[in-house]
DNA sequence: GAGTGACCAATTTGTTCATCTGGTCATTTT
DNA sequence: AAAATGACCAGATGAACAAATTGGTCACTC
């Protein structure tokens, strides 16, 4: 085995998905980019969807690493959540692949893409959930449903970063951090 | 004038929009339901979009009334916000018209519908914003950007009521009230 | 003059058919 | 023999054209 054909195919597919999206990427195109016969792809992947799935799986792994790197044990729970979420969402924003994915989800609604996007979201929630559980155990935050709390954290973050931007001037990183702390940790109540 | 033709048309249009959505409602259909010549509609409304707009305007008015009715000066700010929001979202859920609207927005993305949905949302935020401003003045809550806070309140509420339901068992009224209080007022922080 | 529906331009919808694409497998290459 | 391949096929897709529908107008009626 002179070259790793599977990796060749994965790279080619990632490249094409990033550039043209899931639907507009043909298996022939992937084969051509990978310098591989079309049939060869099917010796490694059952079908187009599985090939796609494997790339997403990879993405999830990288995102987790990003998040993990951003965590600093000396900082508070809320500070770490903020840092991790910020990095995660920035990661999404910076990677052509995720941008194309989100775009295709909204504009075309390709089922396979829809499924993967929710999968990624579920993974993020699951990841935060773990951190929430630890924080509760450590007594860093109040008792609460970890999954629901993780879910709300993500939602609040997305609202602050993406939704607010749609009709208002974007918030900067510091503002987002402060607002996240205000709304989720300190609360609006004065006491 | 034996009958109020304008009202007749508005009722007919509301009925048809509720049943079939904006796009699938034809002016001929409205005319037929209203027992009116098609041309007559155009003596009251410039075009289909304006007719639609007037019905939405009406909806907003009714929603405001609903909210206003639910407010009790003896209760705390957060309690009132919760009562108003709950009533508002329940109203949305209960009215075929709003359901069809939301459905059409997601499934077809009819531009006129998209515009109206954001208009309704903007109105809700603006309404909450006023209440937030008063609460800040009265010292009932911390100082914060009233519009952003109103925006976040709505987002958090929608997340609790609609988004969470998509993949989990729905929260009941009491749970929503408590969670809303936890996340937005008390905060996750223990101190 | 308020009300109307036949009429028209423009858009939408339905249909057809040539092209394309995911996936297979007999054949070739290593 | 195992791995790789691309010609091949059934079904999906979409471009192009035709037919039907619809928003909006206006000459005419009551």
What does the model show?
Chains A, B: Keywords: DNA-binding, Repressor. Chains A, B: Residues 26-45 bind DNA. The structure is a homodimer of 191-residue chains. Chain A is mainly α. The first copy, chain A, has two domains: 1-45, Arc Repressor Mutant, subunit A (Orthogonal Bundle); 48-186, Tetracycline Repressor, domain 2 (Orthogonal Bundle), CATH 1.10.357. Chain A is 77% helix and 0% strand. Chain A is built from nine helices and no strands. The first copy, chain A, has helices at residues 5-20, 27-34, 38-44, 48-70, 77-94, 96-107, 111-137, 146-167, 173-186. In chain A, helix 1 crosses helix 4 (48-70). Chain B binds a DNA duplex (30 and 30 nucleotides) through residues 1, 5, 26-28, 31, 36-43, 47-48.
